[in-house]
Specification:
It is a single chain. Strands 1, 4, 5, 6, 7, 10, 11 and 12 form an 8-stranded mixed sheet that branches. A two-stranded antiparallel sheet has the order 2-3. It has one domain: Spore Coat Polysaccharide Biosynthesis Protein SpsA, Chain A (Alpha-Beta Complex), CATH 3.90.550. The chain is of the alpha/beta class. Helices cover 33% and strands 22% of the residues. Bound molecules: cytidine-5'-monophosphate.
């Protein structure tokens, strides 16, 4: 099992002095937590991380910080490959996909969702092994959702019962993900969206609140409070 980890975003909304994947959470970077979680899940053998062109040294340091409970430092370095990402997330995932080599199942996981519970990683993997071709973790929408016009006036209250917010890791039969990326044009905010454009079925499994994407300084404060549970 291979996991692709896009970690090349600048993360300007976080306001840190380093790209978001290298912001510190309980003494190590978000990327270090994310890679440690994937390797520690027991279902990921190899990881390809896409980082910014200038971030090689930061990335090497992050891999050096993956804790021994996840895997020995030598093993981490053998199992993780770094590539240079692109200007959009889709470009970073594509760069990782280009070097991945043979794999039957590919996970794609945001470095910024570094506290995803191991149970979520395992459940997307199990679902894809059970025969689903594309599997994503989701949560119901807790808040009321409204559609507004350009000036902020409410047009409608959206029925939230069928809405889901989407997390990572997303798991794909490798050939399907490659076809989705071969056809990809324009922007997509997640990988399953590209699979949907091929007309293929995407299956959901329950996500987890701890798999939230760290975007702002507020999120990092929440993550600090949660990180001890990992
Ligand atoms: O910016 P956002 O948090 O939505 O990005 C989601 C993930 O995609 C992050 O882990 C980020 O590092 C990654 N990304 C990337 N290359 C980009 C933009 C984002 O790898 N050009």
């Amino acid at each position: 099992m291979v996991a692709l980890v896009p970690a090349a975003g600048r993360g300007l909304r976080l306001g840190a002095d380093v790209p978001k994947a290298f912001a510190r959470l309980r003494g190590r970077s978000l990327l270090s937590h994310a890679v440690g979680g994937l390797l520690g899940s027991g279902c990921v053998d190899r990881v390809v991380v896409a980082v910014g062109a200038d971030d090689g040294a930061l990335a090497e340091a992050a891999l050096g910080d993956v804790t021994s409970q996840d895997a020995s430092p030598q093993l981490v370095r053998q199992r993780v490959r770094l590539v240079i990402g692109g200007s959009e997330r889709i470009d970073s995932v594509r760069a990782a996909l280009d070097v991945v080599g043979g794999a039957e199942v590919i996970l794609v996981h945001d470095a910024a969702r570094c506290l995803v519970p191991l149970s979520v990683i395992r459940s997307v993997v199990e679902a894809v092994r059970a025969g689903h071709h594309a599997v994503i973790p989701v949560l119901p929408v807790a808040d009321t959702v409204k559609q507004v016009d350009d000036s902020g006036v409410v047009i409608a209250t959206v029925d939230r019962t069928a809405l889901r917010v989407v997390q990572t890791p997303q798991a794909f039969e490798a050939g399907l993900l490659r076809r989705a990326y071969a056809d990809a044009g324009g922007l997509a905010t997640d990988d399953a969206g590209l699979v949907e454009r091929l007309g293929q079925t995407v299956t959901t499994v329950p996500g987890h609140p701890h798999a939230f994407k760290i975007t702002t300084a507020f999120d990092l404060t929440v993550a600090e409070a949660l990180a001890g549970d990992r």
